[in-house]
Amino acid sequence: MLKPIRSSVLINSIMSHAFSKIDTNLLKTITDTKNLKLGKGFHCQMIISSQFDLILTNYLINLYAKCGDLNFARKVFNEMPERNVVSVSSLMAGYFHNGLPSEVFSVFRLMGFGRLLVRPNEYIFTTVLASCADIQALIEGRQCHAYVLKYGLLFHTYVRNALLHMYSRCSQVEDALVVFKTVLDFDIFSANSIINVFLEHECITEAKNVVRSMVAKIGLWDHITYVSVLSLAAASRDLILGCQAHGQITKRCLEVNDFVRNATVDMYGKCGDVLSSQHAFLGARVRNVVLWTTVMAACTQNGFLEDALKLFLEMVTDGIQPNELTYAVILYSCAGLSVLRNGEAIYALVEKSGHKAHLPVGNALINMYSRCGTIEDAHRVFTTMLQKDIISWNSIISGYSHHGLGREVLEAFRTMLMGGVAPSYATFVGVLSACGHLGLVKEGFYYLNHLMRDFGVVPGIEHHTCLVGILSRAGLLDEAEKYMRYTHVEWDIVAWRTLLSGCRVHRNFRLGKKVAHHILQLDPHDVGTYILLSNIYARESQWDGVLDVRKLMRGRCVKKEPGVSWLQVRNEIHVFTSEDKQHPLINQICEKLEDLITRIKLIGYLPDSSSVLHDVEDEQKQEYLIYHSEKLAISFGLISLPSGAPIHVMKNLRVCADCHTAIKLISNVTGRKIIVRDANRFHCFNHGACSCNDYW
DNA sequence: CTAGGGTTAG
Q: The organism sits in which domain of life (predicted)?
């Protein structure tokens, strides 16, 4: 029933016009401005004056539909003595715009059974096809395509564009192209649609060709074209194209549109220009959730992780409610920084907000826990997820792999295959690293040469590097070198360093020196390689070699990147470097560390000075080793964290051999679990052993 | 009297 209209003025005005003819222009204006209250007044006027002709009633359906009151629209529709195609399409459009595509279908089915006695026209198919696109109902979409052909409606631009869009949303590039090719002189709608089809399927060249062909008609471009072109620039990391689009946008004052601004902020972020991204963000008059999330993502993608956290706080302070993607983005920032406490605080917000069931959030939680070193929690999140997608599987597999849990990786991989989930590029990176951890050489080759092909995944440099790692780890260093020599891959520094690490662990210094010099030819500033090379000479007691490395570094102005370790205690991040003694508790920390060193010396610790690069006397070398940043950080953790709590430490470089031995023994004498995330992987020290099995 | 295309995570 009608709700009472409170405004007496309104009632008076309507009653005074009650018996006059309905002003359809006014009714249209009311519809356009979505003024439901005034609209109901008109409905009253129609009832009172018994004006119920077909066209007027259609106006009424449209009015209720546009105002989102579908129950009323349906009621009016149901009670009509006769209906025409406009009545049906108005109602359908109402359902469509209010996110009820299934209702659109049910009305369409009513037409199909003939009960409505109305022949569908181009308006009907445009709306039904849009609904198919909405819920990716490909089968229904194809049926509509058949009807369209049967009724000869394909040459209506609207219908063609709706078909194009439907196929694009249903990921049917071929069908979309077939439709697109029937378009002789495409309008801006079909152009926008086809650009997005290409974009969605990473056909960057084709998309750019369409854009190029549209340059002559730039006057036709609307704000959606710019959104598409900006997305294209973002996807292809094409800052020049992005700037050109942004220039046009500014000139044509289209930046006021939220979507355009979001796409601009995103484009600059994806192209690596964080400053311009932030600038475009700051220029917004009003900032919605998506805009905040986009700029936070731009920071996260470019490593400005603290900025992302700051923006999140600002956003919440501004009273903007985060959505599921905001949580995903901020969790990825926490993961990158390894700040477990912040990650858990966000988790609490996620639980409270009810966004936990969203896939991106669950996936981001798995990643956050695994990158913060608590793989058990990552596993818990993973197993309690209601649905999982390929990213969920890849996240847990990659997490296990970074923690050196080879068996768990293969177990998850088997479960995934049995569940009918197709593995992707990233899956195989995790699986092949697991083969390395487990020493499964034959299996590694089988996965690369057969299984990957079976699943249509083309092996990339990461996979080949994993094979180098598998061979190296198994001690098959010459085979690893041959593999690199004879496999047609453009090897990068990471791959060569994998082989070099193998040479270090298996003490193959002849090959090690050769590989190190090769790396230094590729990149004369790769500090890690100088350290390893110096290490190799030191272990062979070739002190001339050590001196040569130092001379080489000095000559090339290569400075050892200072080792930095940090850990989170309560709400603070405490940062340690070996040289500086800035920490307020430094005296207690050093005291604790000296005590630890004394205790581990009793169970066999011998400082290993081959890791020291400085020109220092022997007794000073030990000093430098003792005060390596990770040792300081762990000592601090031991005096400031509750007894029994695991100690999580992050480090910018790889753990050195001396610290690795020392930390194993420290975990023994203190009975603590110590988790170190270095530049490469996690080391979980427990009861005197490390999860990496001393290979890293 | 009725209809179409677009933004944020891995």
A: Eukaryota
